[in-house]
C-alpha cells in the first residue's frame, strides 16, 4: 500500500534508491559487503553453467502488417557477441531531454565514447537497428508498460529517447505511475515502480530498516490499470538480493532474509524462493485478470541484468572499463544464472497456465548474457556530473548497475521490437489496423 502511494513521482532519487541502498547496506553491514563483492568478482569460474536459450519466437510466423515481413527462421537473439559499429546511437544526451541525470553519462562528462559504437550480433542472424517508426506503428492505439525496478525505468527511458527521434511524446499525468503519450500514433508508454512485483514496502531510514514483502499479493496499483495495458515488460531482481527483508504469505511471516540483526527470530529463507514466488504471483495475477476480462496481453519478462562492481564500490576506477568483454572472457556468476533460470522457468509455467486462453503471450527478453558482456556500459563515477573535476576524490560513488543512455540497454529495445514484429496480436484489442 505504502509503496503505491510513495510512487507518485519516480523521482531521481527514487530510481537511484536500490543503488543508494546498496551503499547504505555496504556501510552498515561489512560482512555483507564482502559477500556482495564475492558475488560480483572477476573470478571467472570455468565450470559455470552455459546459457541455454529457447528461441524467442515460435516457428509460426505472422504478418502483423504487410510492411513487416517475418523471416522464415526464428532467430535466437540472445547468443552472440558485441561487434564494432560505426553508426552509433540514434540519440544523445543533448538531443533527448528525458534522460535521468544519473544515466546521462555524456553530459556528466564521461570522456570515452567507444562504448557507444557497438552493436549486438546474434550468432544466427542480424539484429536490425532500432526503427522508431515501426515500433510506433506496432504500438498504435496500444498501451505498453514497463513494470518493476529502476532497470525497468532505464529501459523505458531508452525507448522513449529512440521514439522521440521521430515523434514527440507528451507526458500524461497519472497517479502512481508515469505515462507518455504519442499523439501521432495514439500510443502510450508507461513505467510503474514496483521493485518486488508484488505488494510490499521498501526499507526506509525511518523504519523498518528491512523490506516487507507480501509474496502472494498482486501489486494493487498495477492490478487497477491492468485492463488497459496491452503489453507489459517486467524487470526485477535487484531489490531481492542481499537487502534484509521479511516475507509474508497469507498475512503471516514466511521467513526473512538477513533479519537476525533486527532482533527478529525468523527463519532465513534466502531470496531465491521469495523471488520465484513474487514473479509467480505477478504472472498469475495478470493471467487471472486478463482471462476474467477476456482481453489479451503480451507479457515480457526481462531476465536479470548483471552489475559490474569490479573494484571498491566507493573508489574511482570501479566499473571503469571502456571495452566490452569478448565472448567467453567473462562467465556468468552463480547468482545471476540462478535468478535467470527462475525467471525462465516461471515464464514457462505461466505459458502452460494460460494455454487454454489464447489471448496471452509470454516471452523472455533474455538480456543476461548480452548485459554481462558490457562492463563498459555503466555510468560508474559518471552517475554524477564531472566527478573528477577537482582531481580524484577519496570516495567516489559508482553506479555499476544501471546503464548509460545512450548505451547497451538500447539493444534490449531492438530485440523487444523484433519480438513485437513477430507477434500475432489476435485476441488483443486494437481499434484500427
Ligand atoms: C548530439 O547529437 C546532435 C545531433 O545529431 C549533435 O549535433 C551533437 O553534437 C551531439 N552531441 C554530442 C555530445 O554528441
Ligand atoms: C487510443 O488508444 C487507447 C489504448 O491505449 C484506446 O483505448 C483508445 O480507444 C484509442 N483511441 C482511439 C481514438 O483510437
Ligand atoms: C527463536 O525461535 C526458535 C524456534 O521458534 C526458538 O526455539 C528460540 O528459542 C527462539 N530464540 C529466541 C532468541 O527467541
Ligand atoms: C544474508 O543472506 C545471504 C543470502 O541468503 C546469506 O548468504 C548471508 O549469509 C546472509 N548474511 C547474514 C549476515 O546473515
UniProtKB/TrEMBL annotation:
A cellular component term, taken from the record's GO annotations: Golgi apparatus
Membrane recorded as keyword: yes
One Pfam entry name: PMR5N
Domain Trichome birefringence-like N-terminal: 74-126
Subcellular location: Membrane
Residue ranges of every copy of the Trichome birefringence-like C-terminal domain listed in the record: 127-419
Highest taxon listed in the record's lineage: Eukaryota
Keywords: Membrane, Signal-anchor, Transmembrane, Transmembrane helix
Membrane topology annotation: Single-pass membrane protein
GO function terms (MF aspect): O-acetyltransferase activity
Membrane-spanning parts: 21-40
Classification via PANTHER family: PMR5_CAS1P GDSL_SGNH-LIKE ACYL-ESTERASE FAMILY PROTEIN (PTHR32285:SF347), PROTEIN TRICHOME BIREFRINGENCE-LIKE 9-RELATED (PTHR32285)
Similarity comment: Belongs to the PC-esterase family. TBL subfamily.
Protein name: Pmr5/Cas1p GDSL/SGNH-like acyl-esterase family protein
Classification lineage: Eukaryota, Viridiplantae, Streptophyta, Embryophyta, Tracheophyta
Amino acid at each position: 500500500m505504502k509503496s503505491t502511494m510513495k510512487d507518485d513521482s519516480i523521482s531521481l532519487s527514487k530510481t537511484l534508491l536500490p543503488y543508494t541502498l546498496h551503499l547504505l547496506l555496504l556501510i552498515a553491514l561489512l560482512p555483507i559487503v564482502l559477500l556482495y563483492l564475492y558475488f560480483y568478482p572477476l573470478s571467472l569460474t570455468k565450470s559455470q553453467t552455459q546459457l541455454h536459450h529457447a528461441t524467442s519466437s515460435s516457428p509460426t510466423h505472422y504478418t502483423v502488417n504487410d510492411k513487416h515481413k517475418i523471416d522464415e527462421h526464428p532467430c535466437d537473439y540472445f547468443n552472440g557477441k558485441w561487434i564494432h559499429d560505426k553508426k552509433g546511437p540514434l540519440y544523445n544526451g543533448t538531443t533527448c531531454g528525458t534522460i535521468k541525470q544519473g544515466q546521462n553519462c555524456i553530459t556528466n562528462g564521461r570522456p570515452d565514447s567507444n562504448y557507444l559504437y557497438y552493436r549486438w550480433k546474434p550468432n544466427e542472424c542480424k539484429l536490425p537497428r532500432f526503427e522508431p517508426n515501426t515500433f510506433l506503428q506496432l504500438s498504435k492505439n496500444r498501451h505498453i508498460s514497463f513494470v518493476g525496478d529502476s532497470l525497468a525505468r532505464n529501459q523505458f527511458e531508452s525507448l522513449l529517447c529512440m521514439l522521440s527521434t521521430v515523434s514527440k511524446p507528451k507526458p500524461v499525468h497519472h497517479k502512481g505511475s508515469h505515462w507518455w503519450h504519442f499523439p501521432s500514433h495514439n500510443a502510450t508508454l508507461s513505467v510503474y515502480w514496483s521493485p518486488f512485483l508484488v505488494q510490499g514496502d521498501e526499507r526506509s531510514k525511518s523504519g523498518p530498516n528491512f523490506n516487507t514483502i507480501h509474496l502472494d499479493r498482486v501489486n494493487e496499483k498495477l492490478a487497477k490499470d491492468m485492463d488497459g495495458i496491452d503489453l507489459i515488460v517486467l524487470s526485477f531482481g535487484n531489490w531481492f538480493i542481499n537487502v534484509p527483508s521479511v516475507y509474508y504469505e497469507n498475512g503471516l511471516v514466511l521467513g526473512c532474509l538477513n533479519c537476525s540483526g533486527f532482533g527478529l527470530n525468523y527463519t532465513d529463507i534466502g531470496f531465491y524462493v521469495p523471488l520465484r514466488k513474487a514473479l509467480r504471483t505477478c504472472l498469475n495475477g495478470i493471467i487471472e485478470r486478463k482471462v476474467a476480462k477476456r482481453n489479451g496481453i503480451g507479457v515480457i519478462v526481462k531476465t536479470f541484468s548483471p552489475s559490474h562492481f569490479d573494484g571498491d564500490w566507493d573508489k574511482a576506477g570501479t566499473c571503469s572499463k571502456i571495452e566490452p568483454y569478448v565472448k567467453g572472457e567473462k562467465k556468468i556468476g552463480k547468482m545471476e544464472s540462478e535468478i535467470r533460470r527462475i525467471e525462465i522457468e516461471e515464464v514457462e509455467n505461466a505459458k502452460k497456465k494460460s494455454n487454454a486462453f489464447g489471448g496471452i503471450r509470454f516471452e523472455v527478453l533474455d538480456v543476461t548474457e548480452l548485459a554481462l558482456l558490457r562492463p563498459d556500459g555503466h555510468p560508474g563515477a559518471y552517475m554524477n556530473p564531472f566527478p573528477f573535476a577537482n582531481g580524484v576524490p577519496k570516495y567516489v560513488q559508482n553506479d555499476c548497475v544501471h546503464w548509460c543512455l545512450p548505451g547497451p540497454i538500447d539493444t534490449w529495445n531492438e530485440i523487444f521490437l523484433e519480438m513485437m514484429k513477430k507477434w500475432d496480436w489476435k485476441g488483443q484489442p486494437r481499434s484500427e489496423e
